[in-house]
Design goal:
The chain is mostly helical. It has 2 domains: 102 residues, Tyrosine recombinase, N-terminal domain (DNA polymerase, domain 1), CATH 1.10.150.130; 172 residues, Orthogonal Bundle (hpI Integrase, Chain A), CATH 1.10.443. The protein is 49% helix and 4% strand. A 3-stranded antiparallel sheet has the order 1-2-3. A hairpin with a 4-residue loop joins strand 1 and strand 2. It is globular, with a radius of gyration of 22 Å.
């Protein structure tokens, strides 16, 4: 591994209140690609790096990997993070580390896409084709909580409070949020994980399931349940579709955007607007009927 990248990864890993393992993994891939593209192995080589070269790299990556404009913008933001590290931590005074550097590259226009959601009938159909207790409880957790996939897959038994029916989540930046959940779901989570060592949904090795596993698993279930409106919809099926559904239902029932934003744990109140679709607001609410006939 490139020494420059390795030092950066070690620094991020120490900042546990700022960087999650997923953030570190994604950023290290992007910065590694940047350093390898220009064959930079020493800090002194970065003195010749400027906005024109960065833009050259980003355009090359976008074309090679067929990235959407949103990914281009995400790559740019990750590189800005590396820029701040070099300037503030390593105290380098190069073109690349100047404050105004990031503003010299324009972000690309992204067409807003409203999040797609599953209907109650589709959720019921998917639940019916599950074959194990783990699959059922995992799906119900996605359907009812609105938690991010990493938050669910790495959910620990110690985070669940059965007395007040809450799940405590530690967010990036060290912030803590407490989420009130359906009492039936709380019981299921406790009962299902009774014999597990640490994680609620741990695998046979005692580790959380991988994100790649849950992505493939959901597509298999949707296909088995006949939930496949069209090819574009099928490609969009991921754990996030359940999170979007929770947000849409909350907004349609309460009209409270700030409450929905807090429920999802957004750091920016503007993020919730991606979930507002007047033509697709769900007027029904998934209630405890989803828990019927599920013995855990």
């Amino acid at each position: 591994m490139n020494k420059l990248l390795q030092e950066y990864i070690i620094w991020m890993e120490v900042q546990t209140d700022k960087y999650t393992s997923v953030t570190i993994k994604n950023r290290s891939k992007i910065i590694g690609s940047l350093l390898n593209y220009f064959n930079f192995k020493q800090l002194c080589q970065l003195k010749d790096l400027d906005s024109e070269k960065i833009e050259e790299f980003l355009n090359h990556i976008q074309k090679e990997r067929k990235l959407a404009n949103s990914s281009f913008n995400s790559y740019l933001n990750q590189i800005k993070g590396y820029q701040k590290y070099l300037r503030r931590v390593l105290k380098l005074n190069y073109k690349f580390t100047e404050d105004e550097y990031g503003n010299k590259i324009e972000t690309k226009k992204v067409h807003k896409k409203i999040k797609k959601v599953l209907t109650d009938d589709e959720l019921s159909a998917i639940l019916e084709v599950t074959t194990t207790k783990k699959q059922k409880v995992l799906l119900l957790t996605f359907m009812y909580t609105g938690l991010r996939k990493e938050e669910i897959l790495t959910l620990k038994k110690s985070q669940i409070n059965i007395e007040n029916n809450t799940i405590t989540i530690k967010q990036k930046g060290g912030n803590i949020r407490s989420l009130t959940v359906n009492p039936e779901l709380t019981k299921m989570l406790i009962n299902y994980s009774r014999n597990n060592k640490k994680y609620v949904f741990e695998n046979s090795h005692g580790n959380p399931p991988s994100t790649s596993w849950i992505n493939k698993f959901l597509k298999i279930l949707c296909k088995r349940a006949g939930v496949n409106r069209d090819s574009d919809f099928f490609r969009s099926i991921s754990p996030h579709i359940f999170r979007a559904g929770v947000a849409m239902r909350y907004i349609s029932e309460t009209g409270d955007l700030s409450g929905a934003s807090a429920l999802l744990g957004h750091t920016s109140s503007q993020s919730i607007y991606a979930y507002i679709n007047k033509d697709d607001l769900i007027k029904t609410n998934i209630s405890t009927n989803m828990f019927n006939n599920i013995a855990i």
